[in-house]
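Progress narrative, work stream C.
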Amino acid sequence: MNISNDQLRYLQLLARDFPNIATASTEIINLQAILNLPKGTEHFLADLHGEYEAFQHVLRNASGAIKRKVKEIYNETLSAKDQKELCTLIYYPELKLELVKQQTDDLNDWLFVTINRLVKVCRNVSSKYSRSKVSKALPKDFSYIIQELLHESTLDPNKQAYVDVIVKTIIDIERADDFIVAICNLIQQLTIDKLHILGDVFDRGPSPDRIMDILCNYHNFDIQWGNHDILWMGAASGNDCCIANVMRITLRYANQSVLQDGYGINILPLATFAMTAYQGDSCDRFMPKYLNDSDRINDKDSRLIGMMHKAIAIIQFKLEGQMIMRHPEYEMDNRLLLNNINYDAGTITLDGKEYSLCDTHFPTIDPADPYRLTPEEQNIVDSLHKSFCHSEKLKRHMKCLFRHGCIFTISNSNLLFHASIPLNADGTLKKVRIRGEEYCGRALFDKVGSMIREAYFGKDYGDKESYQYALDYDWYLWCGPDSPVFDKNKMATFENYFIDDKQAGKEVKGNYYILRDDEKVCDYILDEFGVEGQHRHIINGHVPVRTLQGEQPIKANGKMMVIDGGFSKAYQPKTGIAGYTLVYHSRGFQLVKHEPFTSIEEAVAEGQDIKSTTQVVEMSAYRMHVKDTDIGKEITRQIDDLQLLLQSYRSGLISEREYKRATNKE
């Protein structure tokens, strides 16, 4: 055998796990078998924006896949009502069990029948995985029992009594509730092999923290950071501009409970300051936007939120002005607005045009030095900075975002990123200057991703100047014209608050949004990122698809898929729907369009599921297998290495050893 020294060292390391011909051969057989299993199902979601209930229901029902599975299995033997009841149990086992106990006379009989039905569903959804993979997913308390039930058929008369006794014993020893919860959760987990989140978990909706709790414990997911995620990451890193923006958006939608109860952020100093500084101000333009009528609070508390909202908005504009002046290379001087206000006349001049301001009460702004914070405002900034940087739960969620995410990823010939790629008008990659160096395309994304990480982790190591620049750049990514997660000429926050003329607040999107319908442009981008495969795609979120106006999510002859369908209730009047799920299974792509979710209570009590419509995007007569995926390529490389190890054993280059199973004995 002719192998290099590096190969030999690697094979010697591999031999520690597979110390002889028998163990290496067994692993090759196992891996070859896995390659020929059907591809696991991937789900793609975007722009969740804090809509916890809708998100977790879509996960629980696997975007309608569990309902379809139940129908396939039981359509000939169960009524539509019984199928609905079974689905509801799988989605919400704890809540449904409580309801059943109140309504069922013969509970033991119901439990026996139901457990058998659940086992049949679980057997179906686990059939595309290896026994080893299913075993790893099994709940610890019931691992052995579920394995026995999944792999013993009641059609075999010799096994019927065996299976029946297992189920009856579960019921007799009062473990049925726990078992049902465990197997329902297992069904949910096995139905979605991998979850892709294309950005924007945070802002607008009421519970981004609860979404993050789900994701931090999810079995297999990745996330491509969106602009709202990066804003929160910047805030957690200690960027005061990002903190002010997070506070402003949260108060705008009256989601202060996320700050206080979710992350332990102390907003009392801001409330105390706002009540004094804006006591005589109606703050009409800053009253909270309620996405649900049930969320409305009394006028007194709403007005307090309005005062806090205005107070933090003014602080934000001051901090951003300081940031822009500190970084002239951002070329954002056109966003230095406070010095363009004629405070006596109540007007502002923008791009050579004078506009009347609809709110002229600026008690904390010194016209001679408009970007200077008052001592009271500085105290607010310092207090919020401390709260954001010391929130343990926020730290935990941020570390989850860093562990499972980046600015983009490539998965099974699909390029995933949240928003855009800066382009020139002719469709070529736009060069973006960062600290004197120019970046474009994939190099730009790599640079941005590394800077976001440096802003969070770089405080205690490395170059201090580089760290500070990265920290400031988090804010630029939120609203900078050449930011790949924003890509507009401006963020017109000030104009939308203070100017009635809609033209003043118009935000012009970058060239990417004009050119992404062009298949050639999409292919050019895919080539730039090294995405290969006969069927390759770009998958984005960020910009809601206006289905009410006839816009389609599938663009560029199928090369581009935009799946922001309005999970956020703030966008649903524009989109006409309540979000998309893109499903990629072994037969191809399907787009699932969701109607608005009502409530968990209705889902449990009345079996109300999210109404979804499935659209075939791209299907193939050839069923994809694991060998056709990225994981399959890695497994194939592992097989090649093991084959080389076998040759090394047989040639005597490496000596075989006895395999000793690891034990817990001393």
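Work stream C, second folded protein:
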Amino acid sequence: MEQLTQKLGSGEMVIQELPLPQLTSGMVLVKNHYSLISAGTEGTTVKSARKSLIGKAKERPQQVKQVLDTLKTKGIVQTYRAVVKKLDAYSPLGYSCAGEVIDVADDVTEFKVGDLVACAGAGYANHAEVVSVPVNLCVKLHDDADLSVACYNTVGAIAMQGVRQADLRLGETCAVIGLGLIGEIVCHLLKASGIYVVGVDVSENAVNAARNNCVDLGIVRNAPGIEEQIAASTGGLGVDAVIIAAGTSSLDPINFAGAIARKKGRVVVLGAVPTGFERNPYWYKKELELRMSCSYGPGRYDNKYEEEGIDYPAPYVRWTEKRNMEAFQQLLYTHKIDLSHLTTHRFKFEDAPRAYDIIAKRSEPYLGMVLEYDYTKEHVRKAMTIAQNAPLTSINIGFIGAGSYAQSNLLPYLPPESEVGRVCVMTNSGTTSKRVAEKYHFSQCTSSEDDIIQNQDINTLFITTRHNSHAKYVIDGLKAGKNVYVEKPLCLDIDELNEIQDLCEQQHCGVMIGFNRRFSPLTTLLKQEMGEGKMSMIYRVNAGFIPSSSWIQDKAIGGGRILGEVCHFIDLMAFICGSNPVQVSASALPDPEGLNDTVNIIVEFANGSTGVVAYYANGPKSLPKEYLEVYASGKAGIIHDFKKCEIYGKKVATRKLAVQDKGQKCMMQAFFDSLRGGSLPIPLDEIFSVTRATFAAIKSIQQAGAPVRF
């Protein structure tokens, strides 16, 4: 299938052939008939991408700070990789479309093949021939719906939420500041609700268009006596509410809203405008209320709602983003609002770059721009060839998942193509799959795991996906007789662990897990200096805050931070003392959300060693993340965030690294060496015992800190 993409670094915009998007749990696959270009949001993205690096930096001071912080911690190589990955990536465009369902996931019941639907969501409802969309970002349409208007779905829901936040009653008045695409739709919705509508914009053309279609009073912002005209139209009272649908860095919209609103009125910020209003003479004396309108409505930015399909109960959350979209589509279908005049331009999908040129150059007036697709085309899910006749060797790899971590810490350390055949790569995004395949010289990219797991040429499987899929891919890979490398955690529950362990024993095959810290040069030094025997260890981790809304904190997807990250630290202590964990006691700082991400974990090892993992999410960013102390036989060793190691004995020895090294390069070398005939770099019993220790830590917390032996 074809998709419109742009590179952030160069601004290059191309329509390129990509694999069909993945159809995962809770998703529907849609063949687009039409998609809408949001000139405001997408225009900003396109203009930004076409700027110089200095121009991009000026627009993104926070991201520049992140780059500088990464440079200090990880050095120039890792920072360069991260920046280049971002700049060279193909970014999808678009977030509003309409089309026909061509496939549904096994657990989807509310849609069927052949349904007409409207879709929403950046990263989902893209400008592409085929899109994969979660059920809560997709609404069913009537069989005779006009899809060329239904594709306004997302901007319609955004406008709908702004109107709901204004909380107006029949016969009241509302001013809309900013009469662009969303502003005009807001006006239509207000008129359909029996509201007297005042439209204001800096553009005379925009005001004239609104006068002809959707406002009772239209005024250019710099018109003489504008405040008096609005006051007169409301009988001297002032408007009951103001909806700001403009996009500007100026404070004029927020202060002007204060001037024209009545006492106790409401001001709703729908567009991207600053809110630093002047307290006097209006906001304070009128006791005005400021409200924010969040995108499509309740559910937006909630992974459980958008990605997992968990709806809010209608009696308590009447208007979610999906119900907003449904209401908008019903207004369109019943002709209670008519948006046909908003479409100023139509382009065939293959001509899409022309539309963005008009937006970027402002070469002619525009409002709604609709892309038309050839929906008679058939689309087949199959691997896409990137390089013909790529060489195969005794080790041939496939990658399932290749996100930021894999691109920065694993893929750059692959052996030369003469030593390792690079067969196929799959990620959630077709754009990422193709980009990774091109950059790291894989023969194919795909959206189907079977193209990798069932590929007879591939004998080594890398799994770097979200945590809830690790066990499935490991099990499928082992059953297919492949060597398996998996990022931590190995799995999310004990039954998955037992099945993986049984498979390894039955098939005499193994798994490598990404416990990279044991391969750091500072870890090697510390282990050599401390020797063998009983040890006492303290591992303090300033883990940092991750919100509960993150997939990492989601028990069903990420497993939580104990399974997802604490496993690293238990493994490193096990490696240092040379013994497997056998008992765990743990306690967590009380947390109303039950995240268990500020914990003390006491680990006992088979050889009598003990260790404490102090994993804290409530510390400052200014404190380095990791600090490990090890004590044994009159010696002590300290690793400072994998940049410095100190050994204390009769003398003090110090080794410093130029940049942080957590061992990924050495780990990859060790893994590929093992595939050439050596033993696995991490014995299986160590992988399994460390994984059981993380399960035991969670159980101990649930049992008020009682020790859990395993």
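Residues 61-88 form the longest helix (28 residues). No further action is required on this item.
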